[in-house]
Specification:
Blueprint: E1 2-3, H1 7-19, E2 24-26, H2 32-40, E3 44-49, E4 52-58, E5 63-70, H3 82-86, E6 89-95, H4 97-108, E7 113-124, E8 142-144, H5 150-160, H6 171-179, E9 183-188, E10 191-201, E11 204-212, H7 221-232, E12 238-244, H8 248-256, E13 260-271
Parallel strand pairs: 5-6, 11-12
Antiparallel strand pairs: 1-3, 2-5, 3-4, 4-5, 6-13, 7-12, 7-13, 8-9, 9-10, 10-11
Length: 275
């Protein structure tokens, strides 16, 4: 068990599992920029076990767990990992529904309970470089976030999203996305009424958070934000968003803007540690 000091620590551990495996199972889909940030802030702990690599990322009062394991490795080995038993640990299981059922049972046997269920939606941009959103709102109220907005953005996200199930970014991550120009704000008299937070990876854009403060809903603010987002990303080929499975209102809104469910699921499990 060690604090990760270099990305090579992670990839060497992954390669060691691969060398002894015909097939593997993983939920580790982190991009290199985010991995580098976590390492620089000493937020990652690595544990290697026979046929398995476990990576734990520290949050305020719990840990996210990422795994890369031999397909034949049963997660019963977790009972031997004291770090898991001592802490609150959250893990995301990604895949098609039937596959997740069996994997979920393995984690349930080790004390993990289902916390949240999400589905992925996607939208293909069939109008690259077109004027489909040429009627986008003027920039009068829509601003790209700056560093001074970071703390308020953090408060809005933490007050409105599930801290275990929706991977709320910490301040370091928020400031990184501010630097990347990936957070849009709708402001009035310097007050944030709504925001849209996204990541672009190659030709794919992931819409992570889209929210209008309760008292300002039904005023068209959300629509202006997402239309401006599409305009900003007119050279993007594919748009992705994860939605809570039973949030029918959110699913309907995304369908209104051209998103469709694609059959991929994220089952969020939590193990609350020994009390």
């Amino acid at each position: 068990m060690k604090v990760v000091a270099d990305s090579l620590d992670v990839f060497n551990a992954i390669n060691l599992v691969k060398m002894n495996s015909k097939r593997t199972r993983t939920n580790f889909t982190v991009n290199l920029n985010k991995l580098a940030l976590w390492i620089s802030k000493k937020e990652l702990t690595l544990i290697e076990y026979e046929g398995a690599m476990l990576l734990f990322r520290k949050n305020a009062d719990f840990y996210y767990m990422y795994f890369f394991v031999n397909e034949d490795t049963d997660f019963s080995f977790l009972e031997n990992i004291n770090f898991v038993r001592r802490n609150v640990v959250v893990v995301d299981l990604l895949g098609k529904s039937p596959d997740l059922d069996d994997l979920g049972k393995e984690f349930a046997a080790e004390g993990f309970d289902e916390h949240l269920h999400l589905q992925r939606m996607f939208k293909i941009n069939s109008s690259l470089n077109s004027n489909l959103y040429a009627d986008r709102p003027m920039m009068n109220n829509i601003k790209v976030a700056t560093e001074i907005d970071g703390q308020t953005i953090s408060e809005i996200l933490n007050n409105n999203f599930d801290k275990y199930g929706e991977q709320i970014p910490n301040l370091n991550e928020i400031y990184q996305e501010i630097d990347n120009g990936n957070i849009l704000l709708y402001k009035s008299n310097y007050k944030i009424l709504g925001l849209l937070y996204f990541n672009n990876i190659g030709q794919t854009s992931i819409l992570r958070y889209w929210i209008v403060i309760d008292k300002y809903q039904n005023e068209g603010i959300g629509g202006k934000l997402i239309k401006f987002y599409f305009q900003m990303c007119q050279n993007i080929r594919r748009f992705i968003v994860w939605v809570v499975s039973d949030n029918i209102n959110a699913i309907n809104k995304y369908e209104h803007y051209g998103y469709k469910l694609d059959g991929l699921y994220d089952k969020v499990l939590i193990q609350r540690g020994v009390t």
